[in-house]
Specification:
- This protein has 357 residues and is α/β, with parallel strands linked by helices.
- Helices cover 29% and strands 18% of the residues.
- It has two domains: 59 residues, DNA polymerase, domain 1, CATH 1.10.150.530; 274 residues, Aldolase class I (TIM Barrel), CATH 3.20.20.70.
- Strand 10, helix 6 and strand 11 form a beta-alpha-beta unit.
- The protein is elongated.
Length: 357
């Protein structure tokens, strides 16, 4: 059986190459972009301004890998967690219940929809599991089970009922974006290109633990915002909770970022999950101010969300407020991020990609 090409996630240039290979007019690629991204169709037959011959051939060699989430959980605060089944590399997606048979063939990721007044943010995943192994992260403890394609990433955005309400997308779900950068950049190109959704890059934030080669490429090829998972300014203490500190020390990550101009439209922020007795005192705040001095940035303090069998505890509200106030008083813009969706395991660090029985 010949494997078909998934049209979702393809760039204009890639679709032009496909058209050239199939002896279709070059303008057909632009027409397909319009149908795929502006109109969000889910079948080749819906592309009605393509010739019957072109649609017939496309149906033979391609498909549109749009599929709805298989589950949705709703938090008491209005946050929604969507579960998506991921397409196998050697077959087309066949949507089925997560509770049905042949579960050994299934892989899942989660995306979290967060409404907040006139803003609506979607937190999306880029990998099944994660290679980074951060000790406090449920996703990291799952291990790594595969990269998502650009189509897999975009499907999380295009296939939720609230698509038209979205104001922002953050790549802060399952996986490390710099460990799957081709797919991440392919998806952000679709989101920001005029032949795609035409979004401003300011609507998109991509996170990273600080994989330096990936960061260099990301900063060269993208204008989207960057969020760096910092969590502890002291090298050995950070290493104890984030194994990638050994390969890519946070001091070297910050030194790289200081080479760029962040006073314009692109923004860099640092994510700092606070643990009681581990990284929440004045010693850490003082070192963080010293480390980030001279870098135009923001620090987001995140309440630790405890999971089963974790040895870590949540920092007190008093400690978080004092930490925030110290950073602000010393020239580092700092806020405490509101916790959302904890009751459905949708908050930061809790995504496991598992079907709810």
């Amino acid at each position: 059986m010949i494997s078909k090409t998934n049209l979702l996630g393809m760039t204009l240039a890639q679709l032009q190459q496909l058209c050239a290979a199939e002896d279709m007019p070059k303008y057909t690629a632009k027409q397909m972009c319009d149908w795929l991204y502006a109109k969000r169709v889910d079948s080749v037959d819906a592309m009605t301004n393509l010739s019957l011959k072109a649609r017939s051939r496309l149906n033979e060699i391609a498909y549109i890998g749009r599929h709805a989430p298989v589950q949705c959980q709703v938090s008491t605060d209005g946050t929604k967690k969507y579960l998506f089944e991921i397409e196998d590399e050697d077959r087309e997606m066949h949507v089925s219940s997560p509770n049905s048979d042949n579960s050994q063939f299934k892989r899942y990721v989660e995306a979290v929809y967060i409404p907040d007044g006139d803003r609506a943010t979607l937190c999306i995943s880029c990998q099944v599991g994660c290679r980074m192994g951060c000790r406090f992260c449920v996703t990291g403890q799952q291990g790594f089970h595969g990269n998502l394609t650009a189509a897999d990433i975009l499907n999380q955005i295009f296939s939720i009922p609230e698509f038209t309400t979205l104001t922002n997308v953050v790549y802060m779900g399952m996986g490390e974006p710099m460990d799957n950068l081709d797919s991440v950049l392919g998806s952000t190109e679709v989101l920001t290109a005029d032949w795609g959704l035409g979004w401003s890059p300011k609507r998109i934030t991509v996170s990273s633990v600080g994989i330096i080669p990936g960061l260099r490429r990301f900063l060269k090829e993208s204008q989207c915002h960057l969020a760096v998972s910092l969590h502890n300014p002291f090298a050995q203490e950070r290493l104890a909770i984030m194994p990638m500190q050994k390969a890519y020390p946070i001091a070297e990550v910050v030194a790289l970022l200081k080479q760029y101009d962040w006073s314009g439209q692109r923004r860099v922020s640092f994510e700092y999950t606070m643990f009681a007795g581990l990284n929440d005192d004045l010693r850490h705040a003082t070192e963080l101010v010293s480390m980030l001095k001279g870098l135009y940035c923001r620090v987001n303090l995140i309440r630790f969300h405890a999971s089963p069998d974790t040895p870590y505890r949540t920092a007190s509200s008093q400690a978080m407020n004092q930490f925030r106030d110290y950073l602000n008083a010393h020239g580092i813009t700092c806020t405490i991020r509101a916790s959302r969706g904890e009751d459905i395991m949708a908050a930061c660090g809790l995504l496991a990609g598992q079907a709810c029985q």
